[in-house]
Amino acid sequence: MCCDSEAKNPDNWRLYHLLGLEQPVTAKQVQWTFRKVTLRHHFYQAYLVLSDTDRKSLYDALGEDAVGFIHSGSWGPLLHLLGSKAAIGFYFGSTVLAFLALLLFFIFLGVRVDDHVAWSWTAVAAPLFVLVIVALLITAFAAIVSLFWRPTWEEGMHYVDRIPAVCNFIAVVCYTIFCFLVVSAVGNGHVDSSGKFAAYFSLPIIADVVYYLSSLVWRWPRRIRLQMEIGLNNPSCFLCYGFFFLGIIYPCISIAQWLLIGRRIDRNIESSWYVVFIPFCFRAAFRVLEAYMRSKMKWTIGVKTVMGITFDTLGAFFFNGMLLVSLYFVAVRITRGKEEVQMPLALIPVYAALLYLLCAMFFTVVYLWGKNADNEREERLNNLKWIPTELSKDRQGGPMLVRDFHRGADDASWNDIEEDNGSSLVFHGRDGEGTEQYDYFESVTDEDLLDEHHGDEAPNTPYGVSAPLDEDVGPHFGSHTPTATDSEMAIRPRGGPVHHDPLNLERHGAELDSTESDNGEEEEYDEEYTDDDDRIGTLMSSSPTSSAFFTSSNHSAGR
What we know:
- Residues 14-63 form the J domain.
- By secondary structure, the protein is an all-alpha fold.
- It has helices at residues 14-18, 27-38, 40-50, 53-62, 64-70, 76-82, 84-113, 121-124, 126-148, 163-187, 197-200, 202-214, 216-219, 221-228, 237-265, 273-276, 278-300, 306-336, 343-346, 348-385, 402-406, 414-419, 439-442, 447-452, 486-491, 505-508; strands spanning 514-516, 522-524.
- Among the domains are: 40-194 and 347-386, no CATH class; 228-341.
């Protein structure tokens, strides 16, 4: 209707707006944007990690390794409670204590088995008791914090994400009871006659089954796939389902190894110790495979190189290989006696592995503390420089419609168009007549537009497009370009602005070599100049998602 002058959005505006797109857009771009919008796991996980100062600092220092630490069942809840510095210190102290306790235990075990000392078995196992008690306290604290500290939705977790913390505590309880029972039986001299070791070894079987079954929460194929889906990549099915199958294989290996050891100690079977330790070989092989899969997963998202995959795989191979060699040295010691192999010498690979872990832990904690201090200082400086944009009273923070700009409110400006990435905006003609096409800005033959405009007005070009002006056009608002003198204006007839096509390379080709600056000096353009906005898919786009990285900028030459 001729009397209907109210501006409106195009009829096909809503669905594009829901995806944050602006026309023109291709179906390929729509598919890419929809894939990005639907990956809510990525967005929510990124928000939960980066919105918290402590978690963000830890992620900036460790990268993807910090994600597993933050969402782990044991240390994740403590990190939320204690903060990054306290959590790092607590983790460092408990881990160093655990490694030292294991190192002392294996040293005491080696000298006691070969009768170099006459200590009681309770004294020999004292470091082991300290280890299991500390682990029991930590896992109990983590389980309590995980269950009662905050609701699941505040941590971005599901109820199943609480399972690992509780199951870790149950597993540590089983191992603690097992250690006390075995040390008590060995100290009383009931190793050969009790016949109860098969029953004792049911406790580590229960612990391993509970632990690995609870790990299926983060090993779930869909969760692994979501962690690897970045852009349009297609994660490997081997990686998506590999971790899940390993979580099922590990309990089976644990059942076999502990059952064989218990029955061999009770002399229910007469197999050699070399055969009894075969399940440990399979466990070591699967550990190496899992290390390769973890590195391959990081390579999929682009944070690991092929050389990094090789280094991680070889490192896991040598580390697990050392422990396996030490285990078979122990088998030789049990079979042939201390005359052939002494127990302290058989445990040398274990000592080397524990010392390596201790050195790595010291280096890691020093690096983390320094990096955390730098991140906190940078965070404070950035917060001092940053001024948040406040919404005016008339705006509620929702998507802005065309009529909001047509009302002529104080807050309706081109800056609002730039900031409002979620709405599809239509540029207006004179007198608020909205246009649904781009011919208003590109046509040079529309006589009506030429008659309506005046030379002293700013050219009504799309936001973000620097269209070259005709020589007859006056400077746009805010420009420092010198204007013509009165005599020159008297000679040349005053006419309306002529908006040339910014894509016309024939007219603007000569401007690529040099331009005249304000002071009359010639400014050379770099031949290798690349448009910073080459990811913008359309000239009219004010939303970064509308390009979808598929089309290059067409106005690079015009610039």
